[in-house]
């Protein structure tokens, strides 16, 4: 599958990051089940616990618009390496992922990115299925 548009949206979202403390900009873009793209950036707060990651911002925007299934997510942070999502973001991705093989695209730039799956990044994840009786 071609992820060029998703990657471009993540790169653009990075520029909106509000990072006065860490100076570490992150952008993300999620692809929903009906092929809509939602973007997000990280948003810091002086009370660090109130900070929100780019991945969760993008996912929460999609969910708030009625999209509860994501098919892929693209993430860009440090331009010298492939930035991985934090543990909380991995768990949130698993909540809305279509499946464990959802592509997680880790971007350095438009030409340099790698694709991992959720199962690779969060093996044995706790999901909605674990709550079914």
TrEMBL record:
Protein name in UniProt: Cytidine deaminase
Keyword Metal-binding: yes
Family to which this protein belongs: Belongs to the cytidine and deoxycytidylate deaminase family.
Catalysed reaction equations from the record: cytidine + H2O + H(+) = uridine + NH4(+); 2'-deoxycytidine + H2O + H(+) = 2'-deoxyuridine + NH4(+)
Source species: Clostridium putrefaciens
One MF term in the entry's GO annotations: cytidine deaminase activity
Binding positions (substrate): 42-48
SUPFAM superfamilies the record matches: Cytidine deaminase-like
EC number(s) recorded for this UniProt protein: 3.5.4.5
Binding site for Zn(2+): 53, 86, 89
Residues the record marks as active site: 55
Stated role: This enzyme scavenges exogenous and endogenous cytidine and 2'-deoxycytidine for UMP synthesis.
Keyword Hydrolase found: yes
GO BP of this protein: nucleobase-containing small molecule metabolic process; pyrimidine-containing compound metabolic process
Keywords, comma-separated and alphabetical: Hydrolase, Metal-binding, Zinc
Pfam families: dCMP_cyt_deam_1
Domain CMP/dCMP-type deaminase: 1-129
Names of the cofactor(s): Zn(2+)
């Amino acid at each position: 599958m071609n992820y060029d548009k998703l990657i471009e949206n993540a790169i653009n979202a990075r520029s909106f990051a509000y990072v006065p403390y860490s100076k570490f900009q992150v952008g993300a873009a999620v692809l929903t089940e009906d092929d809509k793209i939602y973007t997000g950036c990280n948003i810091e707060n002086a009370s660090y616990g109130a900070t929100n990651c780019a991945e969760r911002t993008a996912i929460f925007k999609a969910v708030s618009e009625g999209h509860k299934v994501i098919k892929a997510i693209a993430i860009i942070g440090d331009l010298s390496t492939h930035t991985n999502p934090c543990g909380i973001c991995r768990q949130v991705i698993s909540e809305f992922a279509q499946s464990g093989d959802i592509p997680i695209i880790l971007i350095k730039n438009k030409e340099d990115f790698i694709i991992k799956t959720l199962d690779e990044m969060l093996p044995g994840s706790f999901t909605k299925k674990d709550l079914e009786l």
